[in-house]
Amino acid sequence: MTTVEVSNISKRYGADQVLNDVSLSVASGETLVLFGPSGAGKTVLLRVLSGLVQNDSGAVFIDGQDMCDVEAEHRGIGMAFQNFALFPHMSAFANIASPLDARRDSPEAIKTGVHTVASLLKIDHVLEHAPKALSNGQKQRTALARALVGSPPLLLLDDPLRNVDAKLRFEMRLELPRLLANQGATVIYVTQDYKEAMALGDRIAVLAAGQLVQLGTPADIYLKPANLNIARLFGDPVINVFDVSGRRDEQGVYIELSSVRLRLDESMAACVDKDCVLGIRPESIQFCGSDTAGAIPILIETETPLNEKTVTLALTTGKREILISRPSSTTAPDSGQSHIVINADKALLFDKHSGQRIAADHCV
Amino acid sequence: MLSLPALLICIGILVPFVTAIYYSLQRYRLSQPWAREMNWGQNYLNFMTDPGFWNTLSVSMQYAFYTVALELLLGLGIALLLQRRTRTNNFISIMLLMPLMTAPALAALMWKLMTNPGFGVLSYLLTLVGIEDFRWGSAPGSAMFTVVLVDIWVYTPFIMILLLAGLRSLPKQPFEAAALDGVPRFQQFYRITLPMLTPYILTATLFRLLESIQQFDIIYAMTQGGPGDRLTVFQVEAYLNYFQSTNVGRSAALLMILWAITFFISNIFIKNWLRLRERARGEI
Amino acid sequence: MEHTGTLERILRAVALTLVVVFFMFPILWIFLMSFQTNETILRVPPSMVFEPTLANYKALITGKLETNAASIEINFLRNLWNSVFLSVTSVSLALLLGVPAAYAFARHKFKGSEDIAFTLLSFKFAPPLLVLLPLSLYFQKMGLADTYIGLIWVYQLICLPLILWIVRGYFEDISPDIEYAYRIAGHSWFATFRKIALPLAGPGIAAAGLLAFIFAWNNFIFALVLASADKQPVTVGALAFVTASGIQYGQIAAAVVMSITPTLALALYAQRYLVEGLSLGAVKG
User: Fold this and answer.
1) How many angstroms separate the CA of residue A203 from the nearest CA in chain C?
2) pTM of the model
3) Residue A52 touches partner C, C-beta closer than 8 Å
């Protein structure tokens, strides 16, 4: 069991500030997902942690010990790489065995160790193959096996599902949490796929342009995204956004959408007389009859069934596109004219200029 | 790790190089050590009125031009002939490596044996077509032709290998598209093959140009710069100056000028190479 | 491409035949000549039909060359040994020094490393005599003139840049992640170099070593300037046969055959590496 503490890490390559004062800590046994678009600095942060890349400033503590002078091979880390990074001139067995080799385990211990992890990952039948004879899925499992075999207290997984096909990714997304839990290791997992992040992370750290923008549980990040960008990155179909501005009348705070007033909680009073962006998740919108209070008229364009849910693309009277998601089991609305109602409790408001979410805790 | 080879090369090249600059600014004959003194740019100034120097410059340029131009044409032609990957073609392209792997000095020796006016097989073949008493390397009129021939024999395969690699790595789609559009074959060559092959041709040309203008082995082994001063290219002239007339100052100045020429050419090459590499990286 | 006419095919075949004849005939002819006596060589018209003799090779091996007048002693085997010794030692040393340096160049991009690499490359193009003539004067002062050590040192000037340049390209092609993965697995920096980088760049190192060997073997000018008869390799040694008066032509031909056989055999044996090395040496650098 191992804790990780990252404090004020910065790194630049030439004029490029890849990491800017990043601090976070990972509890023992926790799985932390580093999430962000490509170029956000996730991989670099992982490499700073592993000691492969030197940080310009700040410090890394593993189990409270400053890693400044500890070489990569002495940090007790298991790591899986995005491109697998298998040793092309060694068999799958030798690949997996390399961490055990390095600590000079006996040949029998190596054999047992490799076979145990290989059967866990269902690759025991291809151990004698060279990497180039393996399928992509087998390569990925071999790379994972190599990271796991030494039971390292800290596992760094750099987008290990990036280069495998969709079916395999789905399978592994189900399989990995169990595997990682059994290891009992502290895990730091990099991904660009929000579903993977939500499925695997105890907590998610969102990075953008080298900065840590939000750190929280998957639910926190989905329901209370720190800014508009994060709201857009999490969720499929993507969140609906509309330019609005807050108003106040005798009944309280509201915004206007297709000349329908949407009442907001008093806690969002900060939005009044300000340019804002309203974010509504497609699943926070329901179809309704024209007589429902707050019903907004829409014109349905297309319906796209996506397995368990169906996504409807519609136009508001102001010709703005809106996506509505409903469980596929519910009945379809009539085509053409229809009405929707928005669940105001789940509406998210963002400052148009800064992109920050306007929330109760932001104003007093 | 870096320092040792770097140091070796510094000692091995930079020190002699600076020394050569120093010598080139001196009146310095090994046979008259007492008369050694700095004469600054005098050696270079003397070149202006020195017909020997202009002859050296001229024959060096001629040699470089003839060899590179002919080898390029021949190399391209052979590469086109061998372009398709058949077993015969692959076998021939391997056989053609042999002249390139022959030491140029020994190649010259081989040709010397074949062009001997007394018993040389090539001289005999010429008599069959009515050319009697062709004296090859030992006659002023044919000496240049002879050494250029040897150079072609040795180095054409180099260009052929590069261009063949280039030809075989060209993407197929443009040719298929052109064939579908009914573009005649020889137009395909001018419009598609040649432009796409240009980077390879440029690289091969500049590489050969640098070696050719410095050629020593073939010419020295064949005629030692003769007959007379017919083939006294830069390095041969510098060698003869140094070892026969022991004129270190003039020899060093000659080599400095040769170095300036190669530096100029290699700069073009390196810029071109950098562009090539960027393009290659962009595509892959 | 499919409809190549009969005429075109014939023209192609004729052209290819001419090419093969032009490039192969000299080697074949000298090879034949090396098995002939002066008598058959001097026949007019020359003929490919003759009674082969090993006398020329025998003379070279025993070191007693027949001239028209008498027999003189020339130790050609000594030249052959010098070629082997100089080439092998020079290439080994260049590999020993050059491979780690190439690795450093490929992996540690520091400010100006590209400039240094280019400077090294441009040394490849410096006129050899420019370096050799001053060096020969220095060597005389240092006692290195006409020694194997001095020659091997100078041979580094061709071998090192070549190896540095080609091997660097191969190291650059190895994904750094593969090396990182090995280090993370708990191996030292040096073990990673030995177990990952070296084997993966193996073909490149072989190609570079092979090319360097051939260039070293074929070198003429270095030993011509710096070595006296007992240190000279075959390239310089064989040429001396021509100037020594009256040595029989068959013996010269035999000396040439013995001198070019090692490189030709190597070239044919490892032609794939060689073509790769040549293309890489030129196109990549």
Assistant:
1) 25
2) 0.82
3) yes
